[in-house]
Amino acid sequence: SFAMFFSVLSAYYIIRPVRDEMGVSLGKDALHHLFTVVFFVMLAAVPAFGAIASRFPRRTVLPLLYAFFIANLILFWALFRSGASGDALSATFFVWVSVFNLFVVSLFWSLMAELWSNEEAKRFYGLISAGGTAGALAGPLLTRSLVSVLAPHDLLLVSGALLGAALSASLVLRRIHPASGLS
Question: 22-50: string of b/e by CB count within 10 Å (b at 16+)?
Fold first, then answer.
């Protein structure tokens, strides 16, 4: 759980500066509009998530959505690498990263609530949260050290790899500590 949360928050904190740079490139007035778009996208995404969660067993929802987000990171990387640019792509990426953050962290805590009993949660959640804090510190440090050798768009692949590590950790967690009575 520590490693999974470390990976989730490292993945986010690696792409956050890329998102912020794109938001700034659109102008300060655009940020207000972008967060309004984030709100409306979330209004649509939450019911879509509910539909997915109601149709698939719980054990497959997180892997499916993390795989979806990894595929999206690869798609954005390919677009940026190809030289595609423009306000629409920058705005789309900005909104997408905001939605990404909300979903990957929420899915993580949903899995934790499902796997750990109240008694276990009292013992483990402090340590698990420390993993997230460490990831929130490691992500920017990793970004800072890699930005001199990688193009900013290549950081998306690093983020995708970390989210892949989180996905792998979730599968290991399910194997070693299956939630009782849940599908």
Answer: bbeeeeeebeeebeebbeeeeeeeeeebe
Q: Are 167 and 70 in contact (CB under 8 A)?
A: yes
Backbone angles phi, psi at 92, to 5 degrees: -60, -45
AA letter at 182: L
Which residues make Cβ contacts (< 8 Å) with residue 57, sequence separation at least 6? 183
Interatomic CA distance for residues 142 and 14, integer angstroms: 7
- What averages of pLDDT result for each successive group of 10 residues across the chain (183 residues)? 98 93 87 92 94 89 96 96 90 95 94 92 94 96 94 95 98 83 46
Cα angle 89, 51, 64; round to 5? 65
Residues contacting 159, CB < 8 A, separation 6+: 11, 12, 14, 15, 73
